[in-house]
Amino acid sequence: MRIAFLGLGHMGLPMARNLAAAGHDVVGYDVFAGARDAAAAAGLRVAGSGPDAVRSASAEIVITMFQSGAQVHGAYRGIDGADGLLEAAAPGTLFVDCSTIAVDEARAAHELAVAAGHRALDAPVSGGVVGAENATLAFMVGGTDEDFELARPILEAMGRRVVHCGAAGLGQAAKVCNNMILAVSQIAVAEAFVLGERLGLSHQALFDVASNASGQCWALTTNCPVPGPVPTSPANRDFQPGFAGALMNKDLGLAEQAVASTGVEARMGMLARDIYRRYAEGDGAGRDFSGIIETIRDAG
Ligand code: NAD
């Protein structure tokens, strides 16, 4: 298919490369010159602006991979009188936003696209930069059945698991709910290991029991916050991410917005939100989020 890919950062560039490698006709663009140069050096066709990428690709699909909802809305509409992606695209183009943004922002992006005569999906990802490079991302998708089926082969070229979560915005809803579970469970596992240490329990003994009992979860069996039991976990490499504290903090900010707008009583989730905000404001922004165990150990 003919694809314009906007946002060639840590995630976007390897995703765009995988689409090109799968035989799609991809034209990319990033506002940051360094990202454009890296994309050109990787063999990608690069345009001089977002709308140019859409036009020169004669794009059937426009994929965005930005940091925020404001960036998505700005690029769709155009900023300071410049034309936007929506105006540059032929009628009926499918807009697929893979950025992690708020549920309400995703719904507003859908409305902008549809009002301009286009189609739209929200398709945030999990799996990080390694997943983007190896085409093993998980996509959580919101939008109509028809649009989902059109995008499915494109998403499958960049990922291993593609789940249609429901209507517009529900891809982002799934992402925010999953990451709230993850934050709470990573803190719970870290607290249990610190408690075990104080009680004289070895890390391996606690792991051997909990990983085969009802405490079993991803935060324990894949992202174990102490070195040893899971040799590939970030704790074995001084908490190099992995999934950085800054990204967990961002995602919990989106969870907080969703909790506020729905009125749900999410006391554990919002406590995790506070704990990770402080972690990211300290030295945790660039460290794996499982490094929260050090904060807990130091505080006791
Ligand atoms: P990044 O900052 O490396 O990349 C975003 C890119 O978008 C930047 O290069 C920026 O210059 C570009 N950009 C912004 N506005 C633009 C515009 N109007 N036109 C063209 N380019 C524009 O961020 P990233 O790490 O690649 O993350 C992208 C998204 O994926 C974020 O929403 C993030 O939360 C989400 N995400 C990231 C990870 C991860 O591990 N990095 C994992 C899951 C989800």
Summarize the structure.
By secondary structure, the chain is an alpha/beta fold. 53% of the residues lie in helices and 13% in strands.
Structure explained in plain terms:
- This protein starts with a strand and ends with a helix.
- It has 2 domains: 2-167, 3-Layer(aba) Sandwich (Rossmann fold), CATH 3.40.50; 173-299, Orthogonal Bundle (N-(1-d-carboxylethyl)-l-norvaline Dehydrogenase, domain 2), CATH 1.10.1040.10.
- With 300 residues, it is of the alpha/beta class.
- The chain has helices spanning 12-21, 33-41, 50-57, 69-77, 85-88, 103-115, 128-134, 145-156, 170-199, 203-210, 218-221, 245-262, 267-284, 292-299, and strands at residues 2-6, 25-29, 45-46, 61-64, 94-97, 119-122, 125-126, 137-142, 159-166.
- A 6-stranded parallel sheet has the order 3-2-1-4-5-6, with helices on both faces. A 3-stranded mixed sheet has the order 7-8-9.
- It is elongated and about 65 Å long.
- The site of nicotinamide-adenine-dinucleotide (NAD) has 25 residues, from α4, β7, α7 and α12.
Jot down its keywords.
binds nicotinamide-adenine-dinucleotide; EC 1.1.1.31; 3-hydroxyisobutyrate dehydrogenase activity; N-(1-d-carboxylethyl)-l-norvaline Dehydrogenase, domain 2; six-stranded parallel β-sheet; alpha/beta; 300 residues; branched-chain amino acid catabolism; elongated; Rossmann fold; 3-OH-isobutyrate_DH-rel_CS; 2 domains; oxidoreductase; 13% strand; three-stranded mixed β-sheet
